[in-house]
């Protein structure tokens, strides 16, 4: 239901938003040092993330409202769901400010680096602190100070007391948030690329949430393997809603894109990806599930690091990695589809690892 609402809202609202942006001449400012083929993208409406964010928030509350009216069993709005929306929407606001400055000043750079870092840190710290609160009737909070892989491990950041645990968790949580937001932002360079990969990642977290709900320790206390996640079904709902909203957006974002998500969308999506990893207790697994984002980010780190160490030499023709293949003669569509395939393989591997751990633990 939620996924359908988000899909329809995005499909119907996006063309209206595109027309409004065109009237106001809110178009993309293309990097001067980018591939020359991207010059045609200049002026394409951006900030499509505004509609994505609106669709997700509206669909989440509408779904819970409709379930309540229908008398269907539901846990209602949960702390985990609200926390995910907080990080998702908060990062979207930071991205919106960045996009708006770019458009207003007609330049490819928006917020200053320190301004973006401070704003992102404020949202990330608020999320981390709140995630360790709001215990349910069993004392389970949305997040824990334990580092997680497929579930919480024995590595607890609160090894020297809750105060130090809180500080270390805030730092660890913000590392995950920063990595995820930068990963999606760097991947968002070709029509439909980041959108398609994000749909796969959120689809995976929808499956993980449903599985964790069905195998929750509260339902299977005697089981050898069960999951202690605060609100897995609500997280699954949000995963499905994000898939619906992004599928609707992809209709308008596929080549030739009628609109770009902008930093408004990429930072919001990255925030949601990080929130899923933290709240579903699959923090380290995110490296596999979001392997395409990791690969793109590493290409930038390698390029910049080697450039400085070698005195001006480059590993790739251009970073992020997708532009290297463009400059190597690949058509944009080929890069996008092949990166989608890689993204799907990473997601399949992550889900395989998640399920195999449960089977082995039986």
Outline the structure in words.
This protein has 362 residues and is mainly alpha-helical. The chain has one domain (2-284). Helix content is 66%, strand content 2%. A two-stranded antiparallel sheet has the order 1-2. A hairpin with a 3-residue loop joins strand 1 (146-148) and strand 2. Helix 1 packs across helix 7 (232-253) and helix 6 (193-214) runs antiparallel to helix 7. 46% of the residues are buried.
Question: What is the secondary structure topology, with strand pairs?
Answer:
Layout: H1 2-24, H2 49-69, H3 79-105, H4 113-131, E1 146-148, E2 152-156, H5 162-187, H6 193-214, H7 232-253, H8 262-279, H9 286-289, H10 291-310, H11 321-327, H12 332-361
Antiparallel strand pairs: 1-2
InterPro entries: Glycosyl_transferase_4, PNAcMuramoyl-5peptid_Trfase, PNAcMuramoyl-5peptid_Trfase_CS
Transmembrane segments: 6-22, 43-63, 75-97, 155-177, 189-211, 235-252, 259-279, 285-307, 335-355
Subcellular location: Cell membrane; Membrane
């Amino acid at each position: 239901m939620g996924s359908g609402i988000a899909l329809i809202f995005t499909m119907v609202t996006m063309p209206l938003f595109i027309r409004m942006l065109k009237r106001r001449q809110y178009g993309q400012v293309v990097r001067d040092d980018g591939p020359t083929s991207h010059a045609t993208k200049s002026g394409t409406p951006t900030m499509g993330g505004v509609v994505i964010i609106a669709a997700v928030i509206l669909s989440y509350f509408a779904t819970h409202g409709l379930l309540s009216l229908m008398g269907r069993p539901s846990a209602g709005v949960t702390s985990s769901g609200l926390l995910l929306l907080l990080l998702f929407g908060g990062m979207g606001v930071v991205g919106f400010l960045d996009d708006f400055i770019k458009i207003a000043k007609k330049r490819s750079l928006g917020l200053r680096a320190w301004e973006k870092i401070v704003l992102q840190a404020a949202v990330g710290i608020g999320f981390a602190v709140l995630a360790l609160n709001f215990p349910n009737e069993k004392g389970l909070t949305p997040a824990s100070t334990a580092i997680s892989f497929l579930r919480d491990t024995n590595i607890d950041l609160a090894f020297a007391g809750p105060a130090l645990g809180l500080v270390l968790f805030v730092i660890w949580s913000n590392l995950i948030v920063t990595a995820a937001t930068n990963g999606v932002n760097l991947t968002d360079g070709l029509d439909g690329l980041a959108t398609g990969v994000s749909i796969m990642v959120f689809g995976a977290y929808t499956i993980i949430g449903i599985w964790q709900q069905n195998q929750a320790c509260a339902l299977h206390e005697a089981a050898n393997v069960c999951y202690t996640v605060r609100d897995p079904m609500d997280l699954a709902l949000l995963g499905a809603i994000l898939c619906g909203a992004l599928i609707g957006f992809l209709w308008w974002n596929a080549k030739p894109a009628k609109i770009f998500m902008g930093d408004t969308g990429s930072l919001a999506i990255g925030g949601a990806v990080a929130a899923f990893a933290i709240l579903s207790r699959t923090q380290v697994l995110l490296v596999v599930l979001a392997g395409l984002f990791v690969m793109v980010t590493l290409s930038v780190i390698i390029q910049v690091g080697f450039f400085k160490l070698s005195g001006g030499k480059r590993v790739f023709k251009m970073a992020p990695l997708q532009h290297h293949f463009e400059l190597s003669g690949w058509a944009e569509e080929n890069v996008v589809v092949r990166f989608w395939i890689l993204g799907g393989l990473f997601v399949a591997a992550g889900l395989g690892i998640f399920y195999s751990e449960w089977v082995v633990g039986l």
